Amino acid sequence: MTDRVVIPIAEHRYDAALPHVPAQPAAPDGLALDARGRRLQDLRISVTDRCNFRCTYCMPKSVFDKDYAFLPHASLLSFEEIARLVRVFVAHGVEKVRLTGGEPLLRKDVERLVAMLAAIHTPGGTPLDLTLTTNASLLARKAVALREAGLRRITVSLDGMDDAVFRAMNDVDFPVADVLAGIAAAERAGLAPIKVNMVVKRGANDAQIVPMAAHFRGTGHIVRFIEFMDVGASNGWRMDDVLPSAEVVRRIHETFPLEPVGANYPGEVAQRWRYRDGGGEIGVISSVTQPFCSDCSRARLSTEGRLYTCLFATAGHDLRALLRGGFDDEQIAASVGHLWSRRADRYSELRSAQTAGLRRIEMSYIGG
Ligand code: SAM
């Protein structure tokens, strides 16, 4: 008997509408607003749908096995196409760009893309806030090249300090020590601040919350504890597996007293807490228990150029068809503006028994 789960992910993945291109393109004014008055300020870009980890909550082996059909190279947006779209999004108000995946450092020569994006400025003349989320498996080798290409800061994922727990979470037997070596290399290269993401899954790694806090206290690195989310269709999500962020804060506070800190900017995803003794800060991302849809300013660009206006969207908009279909930047900008103006998504606020059955896109494809 095999416990292989077969889910028709490819069908979900290819669901995309050809975007409408307004006949009279209006020029972007840097202040695109959606149907709920939310700005378009952040763009997350999945540069590859491949990953060398098989985290049980993201790319479980039972689905992403040797038979899984990852996208062929020709389907991926080229670096030039990505940079062209980023310029369009920046014209609409995007200031922050995050490269993700899949594992972004697996994309060949990703530092060349970083250099191209680092050269893009907002209409006001400021460089983009450019960052990247990585599992750090290749970071020790790539940190200097990334910094030299213009990357300023980085987020590393690490789901525990205990080697056996972490190896079980990534499911490819990857050791904690190598992630820590990647973090050290990033620090030496001058990438700062370094944020460390820990997905908390009750019963799997929640005993690692306090050890993670203890390890990174006083280092200047900021651990962010993320509630296990119901993204995708393959991770077997159940509400019972979610440990509410309030509980994360309570547990850390018992050992290392905390106090709340205000947000850095409106729409910040993490709620910030600092150690009362000056040992630095942590963040909690409570996407399940305290949804933050009301000021969500994020758009996501999939590996093959589909625009998703929500992490939990069921369909995307095929911007690659416009790029490769001879449309000019003005038309693509008008199309993006039109799409954003109609955006009304607020999945996390509506999450319920009804939404549980909806088809969703895998995080590795849409970009975490
Ligand atoms: N491979 C890179 C990495 O490991 O950071 C980037 C992609 S990964 C999808 C981005 C982030 O999403 C990681 O921090 C990961 O832990 C988080 N993530 C993936 N699946 C998740 C889920 N079901 N709930 C919450 N966070 C999740």
Question: Explain this structure to me?
Answer:
It is built from 13 helices and 13 strands. With 368 residues, the chain is an alpha/beta fold. It has a 13-stranded mixed β-sheet with strand order 1-13-12-11-2-3-4-5-6-7-10-9-8. The structure holds S-adenosylmethionine. S-adenosylmethionine binds next to strand 4, strand 6 and helix 13.
Main attributes of the structure:
368 residues; alpha/beta; 13-stranded mixed beta sheet
How does the SSE layout of this entry go?
Blueprint (H helix, E strand, L loop, with lengths): L8 H5 L2 E2 L24 E5 L32 H14 L3 E5 L9 H9 L10 E6 L4 H11 L4 E4 L5 H8 L5 H14 L4 E7 L8 H8 L5 E6 L17 H11 L2 E4 L9 E5 L5 E5 L12 E4 L4 E3 L7 E3 H5 L5 H13 L5 H4 L2 H4 L6 H4 L2
Parallel strand pairs: 1-13, 2-3, 2-11, 3-4, 4-5, 5-6, 6-7, 7-10
Antiparallel strand pairs: 8-9, 9-10, 11-12, 12-13
Helix pairs in contact: 2-3, 2-10, 3-4, 4-6
Task: Give a short synopsis of this structure.
It contains 13 helices and 13 strands. It has helices at residues 9-13, 79-92, 110-118, 139-149, 163-170, 176-189, 209-216, 245-255, 319-323, 329-341, 347-350, 353-356, 363-366, and strands at 16-17, 42-46, 96-100, 129-134, 154-157, 194-200, 222-227, 258-261, 271-275, 281-285, 298-301, 306-308, 316-318. It has a 13-stranded mixed beta sheet with strand order 1-13-12-11-2-3-4-5-6-7-10-9-8.
